[in-house]
Every structure is written in C-alpha cells, then in structure tokens.
Design brief:
- With 192 residues, this protein is mainly α.
- It folds into two domains: 2-55, no CATH class; 63-191, HAD superfamily/HAD-like (Rossmann fold).
- The chain has helices at residues 2-10, 19-39, 45-55, 67-76, 91-97, 110-113, 120-130, 144-153, 180-191, and strands spanning 82-85, 106-109, 138-141, 157-161, 173-174.
- A three-stranded parallel β-sheet has the order 3-4-5, covered by helices on one side.
- Helix 1 packs across helix 2.
C-alpha cells in the first residue's frame, strides 16, 4: 500500500481526488492499485463498499494524544485555527465525529476546494477566511513537500511535524504538536 500511496503523491495534480464527484473513482483506483501490487487481483464492488463504509467510521481513525491538549491551549490563547488538508470531502464530517471541529474556524479540503497543497492557492484561501495575512500565519504539517515547502512558498511560516525524526536537517521542525505553544511564545518574544 505504501508504494501505491507514494505513486499517487508523485501525481502532481492539485486535486488528487478529482473533486467531490471524483472521490469514489479515486478510491476505487487506489484500492485496485494496492490489490494489484499485493497479488495481481482486483477489487469487487462488495469489497469496495465494505472498505468505504469502514473508513467512514470514527473508529477507523485515531487522534494522537497531543492533539486535544494542544488545540485547547491554542484556542484558550485566542489563536485562530484552521485545517488545510489534501483529503476527500469526508474530512469535515470526520473532524466533527472525532470532536475536533469546534477548534477550527475554517476547514480547507482539497477535494472541495479543487486545489491542494503544495499549491499556494489553498493556503491563500484559508488565510483569507481567517482574515489574516499569509505572513502572520503558521502552518504545521507532516509533509516536507506539501506542508512545509508549500506553506513557505505561499508566504506562511511553517513547522514540520516530524514525529518519527525522519528530517533531522530541517531546523523548523517539531516532534509533537505540544511544542507549538512554546514555539509561538518564542516567536512573539523575538518580535518585540
């Protein structure tokens, strides 16, 4: 499955899902490619339906332990939070099911927006919705190309979330979301 995902990430289209109406075809193609890599087979309608239903359930996903405490601390500090994601249109519902949606003022999802990271457009739209300049925004994400480089190309500051310590050469990286408040405090004090 990892090989297929890497192959899909190399596809440079801004919206890998083909928009909301294209999502079923994207996921069917993805699963067919995975199955082909595993044993040369395909995927039946029944198997596709079962997998689709499984991944539409909250129990198929987990939230890292640092997420809720960090979001609570940032929200209490008055930080405007948003999601910018290369995902399908189910993400807003999933955030709601996981109890995360109240923390975010806006959610920008590539399948809905018709553009995705690293294209600067999705970052610009999100900043506009938050009524902030790109230069005043900090983007945190776990992809060097899509999140870190994409946000910087759009004029945002960026932190790379490197939970597995795979990018030790990147100076602006964190290992846990719990580091964000301290980074913001240091950043604010250096501006003074």
């Amino acid at each position: 499955m990892t090989e297929t995902w890497i192959e899909i990430q190399r596809d440079n289209r801004g919206d890998r899902y083909g928009g909301v109406r294209g999502e079923p075809a994207f996921w069917r193609d993805f699963l067919t490619r995975v199955r082909r890599l595993l044993d040369g087979g395909g995927i039946s309608d029944e198997a596709f339906g079962s997998l689709a239903a499984h991944f539409r359930g909250a129990e198929a996903w987990r939230v890292y332990p640092d997420v809720f405490p960090t979001l609570e601390r940032l929200s209490e500090s008055g930080v405007a939070l948003a999601v910018v994601s290369n995902w399908d249109s189910f993400l807003p519902r999933l955030l709601e099911m996981q109890g995360l949606s109240p923390f975010f003022r806006t959610v920008s999802v590539s399948a809905i927006e018709g553009t995705g990271k690293p294209d600067p457009e999705i970052f610009r739209r999100t900043c506009e919705r938050l009524a902030i300049d790109a230069g005043d925004a900090l983007h945190v994400g776990d992809s060097l190309r899509e999140d870190f480089d994409g946000a910087r190309a759009a004029g945002l500051a960026a932190l790379l979330l490197d939970r597995k310590d795979q990018h030790p050469g990147v100076a602006d990286r964190i290992r846990s979301l719990s580091e964000i408040p301290e980074v913001l405090i240091r950043s604010a004090s250096s501006v003074r």
